Amino acid sequence: MPDQKGIMFPDGVRQVTCKDCIDGQFTIPISMAFQPIVNTATKRVYAYEALVRGVAGEPALSVLSQINSDNRYFFDQAARVTAIRLVSELGFASRDQDNKLSINFMPNAVYRASTCIRATLEAARLYDLDPKRLIFEIAEADQIVDRKHLMDIIEVYFW
């Protein structure tokens, strides 16, 4: 159902993390492309990396160039939830598969790690995707501003 900004979060996934997320003005429709990550030793797909795209297949830069301090927090959440929803719709969440899903997060968009991950975990639960199949990847385009904050995020997300 649409939130107060018109962004679609699936029923059961609450976008209730912090004021910056709730007040975010993210109105950019997004989709995802899924790039395989191959284990070269086994020559099998190990994971798929979710790469943001526009809904008509526009490249990542066309979406990312619209991200600013007013919508960064909301975009970060919406991108992860969108990736989980789409892989579920593609049958990825099936229990007979063991591939992982690599999803990016922007360290400067995580206000408080323990609450900002909530929508991602709720989406995984809703779409029956075992959270152990999630790989959290630090978005390389996001310049690290506060190393201690990044270490706090890593401690919560990765342990």
Task: Please describe what this structure looks like.
- This protein has 159 residues and is α/β, with parallel strands linked by helices.
- The chain has one domain: TIM Barrel, CATH 3.20.20.450.
- The protein has six helices and four strands.
- A four-stranded mixed sheet has the order 1-2-3-4.
- Helix 3 runs parallel beside helix 5.
- The longest helix has 18 residues.
- 29% of the residues are buried.
- The N terminus is likely disordered.
List the main descriptive attributes of the protein structure presented here.
TIM Barrel, 20% strand, four-stranded mixed β-sheet
What is the CATH architecture annotation?
A: Alpha-Beta Barrel
The secondary structure category is: alpha/beta
Helix content: 25-40%
Q: Overall mean pLDDT score?
A: 76
Q: Give Rg in angstroms.
A: 15 Å
Number of helices: 6
The CATH topology name reads TIM Barrel
Q: Ranges with pLDDT <50 over ≥5 residues?
A: 1-6, 16-24
Overall 3D form: globular
Order of helices and strands: HEEHHEHHEH
CA distance, first residue to last residue: 32 Å
Query: CATH H level: which superfamily?
Result: EAL domain
Number of DSSP E strands:
4
Major sheet characteristics:
4 strands, mixed
Strand content: 15-25%
Tally of domains: 1
Can you list the strand order of the major beta sheet?
A: 1-2-3-4
User: CATH first level: which class?
Assistant: Alpha Beta
